[in-house]
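ok trying again, last paste got cut off:
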Amino acid sequence: MSTILSVKSITKKFGNLIANDGISFDVKKGEVLALLGENGAGKTTLMNILFGHYTPNNGEIIFENSRVEFGNPSNAIKLGIGMVHQHFTLAENLTCIENVIIGEKSLYELFLPKKNAIQKILNLSQKFGLPIEPNKIVGDLSVSEKQRLEILKTLYKDCKLLILDEPTASLTPQETENLFITIKNMVKKGLSVILISHKLNEILSVSDRIVVLRNGKLVGNVKTKNAKKNDLARMIVGTNIQYPIREKINPGKEFLKVKSLSYSNPLNKHEIINNVDLTIKGGEILGIAGVAGNGQRLLTKLLTGHLNPKSGKVYVNEKEIRSFTPKNFMNQNIAYIPEDRNKEGLVGDMTVWENIMMTEIDQKKFSNSFGFINEQKCIQESKTICNKYDIRTQSIYQQARLLSGGNVQKLIIGKWLERNPNILVACQPSRGLDEGAIAFVQKLILSVKSRGNAVLLISEDLDELITLSDNISVIFKGKISKPLKNQNLNRLDIGLMMAGEGFNV
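nice, full thing came through this time. structure:
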């Protein structure tokens, strides 16, 4: 195969930080190249260079045998490089075809007849196996349909090299399988793909070659057929990863019981919780599987006191909760790992130690005899927690927003686990983390179970749910299915339930 892209000795610095350090690799025509690495390894920076967001300090990029310099994404797009980001960039109130041609036409032309554009989209749709309805409103599309549309947007602009960033993050197993069929179909027809993902099993199933970055440097470039999962994990983190193993524990007393819980978002009629029942006992992890937007966010808010239910009851340790406030749920010894760790899990402009101590600051042991905060005791406790939970920070006095995603997550989990919660509500706890951080976070979640406490685990990652959960329920349009025992569960059956088929409440 001929080469479409050559990256030669690319170096990118941000002050004293070297994000990319002399990185070199090629991408062949009709090849799927997987890019792996820890958070902070330099993957995003490198892709931003390839897509024109950044310019390198040193090195060169050869695209189709010509040296190129991208000043902005539009230059990259004109040459034939497209990128589909993990978080979609679609206008929900416009149609599919309007989203495709936006930026190509003036606002006036956007609302004129689009016969030629529609025909081109339909031709691309048929050629690459990406079915779409051009005149359908984007807000009415499923997650997988939105992803197809994002890919079609790049193909419409005559894309030759497609960069996919975590493309399966919110897909069911069936949707993931269909996406991989599409990718393989695209490369057969000459398209080249760079795939960024932290899911090693998926990388091994769809890629042709794998490039691994660590600390800004290239540490691996192997053919997929010669690669093994454990070897890749070792390359990514620089050491062997000990993956967590769920132990069987006889369930204890009932820690959390939810009866007929309902809620509807007055601002979004599609966002509901509909007559939900669930029970979690001590020493048990209940996993909730589902595609994003089916009520997961509302459920976590209700079970942590951030929303008042329309109807239904919540019992903690067999006592009914009557006051739905975060403070009251905290007092019931319920811990919460939010879906958006940066917006909800910490205050970015506050220091690391202030974020760690935020939930403990009202305790007497951290106050002096006059009732004021004993900063020295707080700082010492923060240092202990940082060491215990491997929170890597330059200083506990630095702003929390400067931490990597993995370290932010360890900070959030660590400060809550120090309270030894009876119930842990964990929402997407390993989303966007690298392999080493995932293993560490999952061990921490299992430690709650091993103490005889209860965990409600909400995740779109089916591998994570199967690894950690004793029972798995599926959420679909605000309803929750009866729990399935995690014994030889069929992934595809769960995937069908996530799509609304065979759903049993």
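cool. The first strand starts at residue 3 and ends at 14. Residues 3-237 form a domain with the Rossmann fold fold (CATH 3.40.50.300).
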